[in-house]
Amino acid sequence: MTDAPAASAPDPDLEDDVFEQKAVRLEKRTRLIESGEGAYPVGVPITTTIPAVREKYADLETDTASGDVVGVAGRVVHFRIGGKLCFAALQSGDGSRIQVMVSLAEVGEESLARWKAMVDLGDHVFVSGEVISSRRGELSVLVKEWRIASKAILPLPNLHTELSEETRVRSRYLDLIVREQARTTVRARADVMKSLRSTFDSHDFLEVETPMLQTMHGGASARPFVTHSNAFDTELYLRIAPELYLKRAAVGGIERVFEINRNFRNEGADSTHSPEFAMIEAYQAYGDYHQIADLTQELIQNAAMAVAGSHVVTWADGTEYDLGGEWARISMYESLSEAAGTRITVDTPLGELQAMASDLGITVAQETHGKLVEELWEHFVKGSLERPTFVMDFPLDTSPLVRAHRSKPGVVEKWDLYVRGFELATGYSELVDPVVQRERFVEQAKLAARGDVEAMRLDEDFLKALEHGMPPTGGMGMGVDRLLMAITGLGIRETILFPLVK
């Protein structure tokens, strides 16, 4: 019976039909209230859930009565009216469905007439009755009593027509009702979050929370959102990263610390970027970028296992992607030189890099050595990375919070992790020398003065914390939404439950 509805709701995009249906449903709401039955009772006497019934009676033979009476509730997603027998399918929040049969013999003439008159697709309905298997083998509840649990005033979308992407992201509540993939993604995200915390806990990390509103933005190169505090009469910023506060925690002795929370960057939005996004940052005292890379790989592989039961994940389009094994670690400069067919080093003159970028049609707002190298690397190398890959040892001038490489002049101990063609995470051997950090901030301030809106500001309070001594530390940051993208194959707007849309 649940294969096909008897009466599909009209397309909600057709405003006239929606207006007419809403008027009819509002009239039914009024009648329910006036009858004393109510359209929105405070509760209904459920005894179990639809998933539990399906599990318990999965092996009930065709055309058999169980003898057990249950009380269940769900949303009406299919509906068929007959003379003496009506059918409906109730759906629970996880998408599980069960057929309900409302017959004249069981409920009586008045109750059956009321069912036909009052129940619509989309309503939440409570039913009580015996669990049976129909003549077609459909697990069902043979209703003896029913009532409206919540009257829907607007109709559901057509269940046989796929929702557009815009409808999915703008009306996620409809997406969750209609589409199994939407519900699966929400569960996958919850599984990922539990896995991340479990992995951190197994390595003795402590979870903390740091300010969302900050008097000075920092911790990343990004344009912030600006707001104003009436209480303090001062300009504040939505944070672009928790880094500088987590490092303060490390100075204070929380030697293994992490945070999972929201960041905000006043930049573009596309298939891999959202102005508001969830991020993990973690810092491990007496670690370096190699150890933090090991931890990051473990975090991601454990998350894949939690969702897919394997390191080989299956994306929404059916493609399999292998997150298992040891991931390659390649040098940015060496991989760029090999792909470009010419040797590029930290000593390559700026003019040569500018000429190469110009020939390739690459434009960079601030043409520093590091920014040109990174843009050239993205042009030549990024698209060729099929397996998860750590790209190591970045230019110094683009990494103001990173320690200089212990043996390679002109680069820093930083990696970016690329998975599925996009940057998923970044990791550092953190810069803990307050004198060098001040010098780096000064250079960033010069860039800001020349118009670089993403440059960091000189943060005296953070420098004061560093001056009290921060141990050698490895740190990492990873987008949670992008981690879901790597595991599910979806775009970022699908992995965020309620994404910001224009």
Automatic annotation (TrEMBL):
It catalyses: tRNA(Lys) + L-lysine + ATP = L-lysyl-tRNA(Lys) + AMP + diphosphate. Its EC number is 6.1.1.6. Mg(2+) 1 binds at D416, E423. It is found in: Cytoplasm. Binds 3 Mg(2+) ions per subunit. GO terms for biological process: lysyl-tRNA aminoacylation. One of its GO terms (cellular component) is cytosol. InterPro entries: Aa-tRNA-synt_II, aa-tRNA-synth_II, aa-tRNA-synth_II/BPL/LPL, Lys-tRNA-ligase_II, Lys-tRNA-ligase_II_N, Lys-tRNA-synth_II_C, NA-bd_OB-fold, NA-bd_OB_tRNA. One of its GO terms (molecular function) is lysine-tRNA ligase activity. Residues 192-499 form the Aminoacyl-transfer RNA synthetases class-II family profile domain. Keywords: Aminoacyl-tRNA synthetase, ATP-binding, Cytoplasm, Ligase, Magnesium, Metal-binding, Nucleotide-binding, Protein biosynthesis. Homodimer. This is Lysine--tRNA ligase. It comes from Frondihabitans australicus. The gene is lysS.
